[in-house]
Design a protein that fits this description.
The structure is a single chain. By secondary structure, the protein is mostly helical. It is built from six helices and two strands. The chain is elongated and about 65 Å long. The protein starts with 15 loop residues before the first helix and ends in a 5-residue tail after the last helix.
């Protein structure tokens, strides 16, 4: 491939820089809508956490701090790898981009495996609302509300992680063929998406897992 080739510019743009800027703006707008989406659920959680503090604290103690903490470390490491992948794309280091995207995707898979283990534990412990929920003691309805919000928030986050993993694998395959050597913008946009996924978890972990700690 000719290293001096100019990236293709769509007819609605004057320059490659303008096209890249529009792509980044589009991703930021998309992420803004995602912030509003998760923000509404987090606001509901905050309100109910304030209203049913004791019941939410007791429910939070049934979550696995070890799995949650490990998954936090995994996502933070994946975010670092994604940042290195973007830098490698800027430097046109094809092999390095491929490796780093694959490592990021692998870390995402590790996150999902641990999340699956935790969901199975929740099912065995009968903490899944409307499917297998049993609560001993007072505040059963309030505890069930906590787990409704827990599964909504972590489930939606898991969907976003799964989408990101698929994109990482696809981008690694495309990078291997030199797709991004002349146009690194798609890798940068994927990086924004993956960092957003990580940031959401950074909020979810203390709110959900550490809620029962005094």
């Amino acid at each position: 491939m000719n290293s001096t080739a100019i990236p293709a510019v769509a007819e609605q743009f004057d320059t490659a820089e303008q096209q890249a800027g529009a792509a980044r703006l589009g991703m930021w707008i998309f992420l803004s809508t995602e912030v509003l989406f998760f923000g509404g659920l987090l606001l509901a959680y905050t309100v109910y956490r304030y209203r049913y503090g004791d019941a939410f604290a007791e429910a939070g103690r049934h979550l696995s701090d070890l799995i949650g903490g490990t998954n936090t470390a995994i996502l933070l490491a994946s975010s670092l790898c994604m940042a290195f992948a973007v830098r490698a794309a800027q430097l046109r280091q094809r092999a390095k981009v491929v490796r780093l995207l694959l490592v990021t995707g692998t870390l995402g898979l590790c996150f999902m495996v641990l999340k699956g283990v935790e969901y199975h534990k929740d099912y065995v412990d009968q903490l899944v609302p409307a499917l297998a929920f049993h609560w001993e003691g007072s505040g059963a309805g309030q505890a069930e509300l906590f787990f409704w919000l827990y599964f909504c928030l972590t489930g939606l986050h898991a969907i976003h992680v799964s989408v990101g993993i698929v994109l990482l694998l696809v981008f690694a395959w495309l990078a291997r063929s030199g797709k991004f050597e002349q146009n690194r913008t798609p890798v940068e946009i994927l990086g924004l998406y993956w960092h957003f996924v990580d940031i959401v978890w950074v909020f979810l972990f203390p709110l959900l897992y550490l809620v029962g700690h005094r």
